[in-house]
Amino acid sequence: MSHHKVNMEGIMLFEQPFARVPYENYRKVFRTSQKNIEKELGTVQNAAKDLASKGSPEADVEATTKAIDGMIARVEGLKRKLSDMQETAGKPTLEVMRERLEHLGALEGIEATNTHEFREWSDVRLDRWLVDWSLRNGKEKSARKIASEKGIEKLVDIELFSDIRRIEDALNRKSCTEALAWCSENKAALRKLKNTLEFDLRLQEYIELARARKTVEAMAYSKKHLLPWLDTHRRQIIQAPALLCYPPTTACSPYKRLYDPARWTTLVQSFRLAIYHLSTLPTEPLMHLAMYAGLASLKLPTCYDEKHRNVNCPICNVDLGALAKEVPYSHHVNSTIVCRVTGKIMDANNMPLAMPHGQVYSKEVYKEQASHNDGYVFDPNNPGDKARFADLRKVFIS
């Protein structure tokens, strides 16, 4: 039973982004609500102080009534705004969070990996990973279809990746507008991470003005959007004005690099890394990470030796073996010996036995041979080497 016990710790390592994404989304809703409350109630408090400082409100009843009505209208407007935000963003995010936690919580009631319940749970996880892979590779229609057919819309992040694709498409069209809007929404988080994406986008817009030879507009843009970054990007900001003296066809290396269209590709990559970091998503598809972990746990040098390939070993398969070349070899504290012929584990019930010349196979193989050859056995890889079954030696690993 212990062999089939669910490895909760290992599973949860892969599920951290699954639970964190809706949590981070709800934090954004909370911060937006908090900003609205502080803004509106701050205005109401100031109006109340002004009203109290006038001394006797009875002197101008009409003005006092108007001020109070204004404060009431602001509070009612704030209530409507918060209610709408809760219905459109807060409540759906809470439902997603609840469903995902229930999905993870279902594991607590599953005792073994060979049960029907665990297989069902694993199938849902595989569907989620397929959707994740599809979204990361620009196959949004396929992702939506899988999610809809399997009923896992709340267990996948289609909307998040849809926003990522929209902003990346804009950058590929050489437009920074959408990415800058995203930076504005996440300014505090980016600043906390010391991320320079916003500056890189501003610098690119400046470069495009210089490319179009719009000198006056470029100088004004630099003063408004680049100079505030002087403390952290002094060298680049000092270099920027000189760009106006060089045409886009320049051969001067520092400015040629600034005019290089490949900078747009770098911006796409920088944006993707930033939003993955903020959303606590891994940079690789979850399916890839799971495959890397699985392949690394099984990979052995003998997997690439044609004479010792195991029919039940995934790494011994030519295609999967090619994928496994990128991962390290497995490290096991306790070795597990597998028979090269049957692919079964050799243990106390199926002991490894050695022929006189040293070749080792499982007891099951030799018993099958002996039953058909009057008590004689042979080396499956060299049938000419024969011996009596009674002459085989037990092998013990120390």
Jot down its keywords.
398 residues; mainly alpha; two-stranded antiparallel sheet; 15 helices; 5 strands
Low-confidence stretches are none
Which structural class best describes the helix and strand composition?
Answer: mainly alpha
Beta-strand content estimate: under 5%
Strands in their spatial order, largest beta sheet: 2-1-5
Number of continuous helical runs: 15
Element order, helices and strands? HHHHHHHHHHHHHHEEHEEE
The major pleated sheet works out as: 3 strands, antiparallel
Q: Topology of this protein?
A:
Elements: H1 8-53, H2 61-105, H3 116-136, H4 140-150, H5 158-172, H6 177-185, H7 187-192, H8 197-211, H9 215-226, H10 234-239, H11 253-259, H12 263-278, H13 286-298, H14 318-324, E1 352-354, E2 360-362, H15 363-372, E3 376-379, E4 382-388, E5 393-394
Antiparallel strand pairs: 1-2, 1-5, 3-4
Helix pairs in contact: 1-2, 3-4, 5-12, 6-8, 8-9, 8-12
